[in-house]
Specification:
mainly beta, Umud Fragment, subunit A, eight-stranded antiparallel beta sheet, 15 strands, about 15% helix, globular
Length: about 200
Amino acid sequence: MIPRLKTGAFILVSLALAFIFRAALGHPMWVMTRGMVPSLFDGDLVWVSSTTPVLGDVVKVQFDSEPGVYRVVGMEGQQIEIADGVLLVDGQPVQEDGSKTEAAPGVDCTVREVPTSKSQINARTFWVVPGGQQAATRVPRGHVYVLGDHRGVAGDSRPWGAIRTEQIKGVVGRILWSWDNCETTPRWQRIGKSIE
């Protein structure tokens, strides 16, 4: 009887410590979308920290069925618009001078060169695949506006509208591991990369 109590107590303490660790420090998460290329690839394992997000952060968003990963481009009260593929926050473009092509994995396991534009939000500099349209909209109180960095393929706030802040479950900070499902090899150059 005593060994069973010890085992049960050990399991309960372990579960409690795991819950505290996850709540205080964060947790890993697999990225399973092409909507954040070139920042994140399908097959990246990222660390999601339990910190409060700010404008420009890449965040984990929890929906009813599954989580997603997006960039916060608008906070409550801000006006968001996409005109001719250019994101405007409060009427100011976030794209800067600078463009390049980046190799990105496609659905059919082919690697395609995609045009990217340099962007900056709240001192975060990152690259996006521009595209799409969005009529000017104001972010309501208690909400944020999120976009994928690959605007042509991402499902994000453009069709859904702004999301509630309580749906954000952490900030993506670093790639822990990256696996190419097509080549069945690690993407060594992505491992340890910090997410801007």
